[in-house]
Amino acid sequence: MRSEVLTLERRHVDLRAGTVRLDPGSTKNSEGRIVYLTPELKTLLAEQLDRVHRLGRRLGRVVPYVFPNLSGRYAGHRRGDCRKAWATACRKAGCPGMLKHDFRRTAVRNLETAGVPRSVAMKITGHKTESVYRRYAIVSDADLQDAVRRLTGITTRITAHSDVAPAP
Q1: What are phi and psi of 36, to 5 degrees?
Q2: Rounded Cα–Cα distance for residues 12 and 50 (Å)
Q3: What is the per-residue pLDDT across 66-104, written as a single tens digit (0 to 9) for each?
Q4: pTM of the predicted structure, to 2 decimals
Q5: Domain stops at, among 49, 75, 95
Q6: Contact between 34 and 4 (Cβ < 8 Å)
Q7: Distance between CA 63 and CA 75 in Å, rounded?
């Protein structure tokens, strides 16, 4: 999070295209990539950029960062850390103690559940190797139950359309 979010500058965000460009060397795996924004995230980023623009007008200078310090002695300067803000946000969201990687796991699970091809999901999440990606692709009991329901549906359709009885 520190390398990919806190270093973001306004020049990296293209709201018209709905993208954020991460430069090579600025990501955990050092590879650049384009992040495509959901409509909700696009709206939230537009609101944040508006706050930064107002801050720049108040300070009388251009603030290049997407997430600068908004007040205090370091207003307009790049935020060096967000641990306190992260803990506050998690507490207010009703999930205290969550780690940033917990949400990365959630993203991987959501991509897998949505049927996004693994190569695309790995590009989105920034995983270089399948073995590391698999560590984030946690399988839950609900996933296993869903697999059985799907398999049961397929078996039922095959049996209904087959002249051959299924093996006992």
Answers
A1: -90, 130
A2: 15
A3: 999 999 999 999 988 888 888 888 899 998 888 877 778
A4: 0.66
A5: 95
A6: no
A7: 9
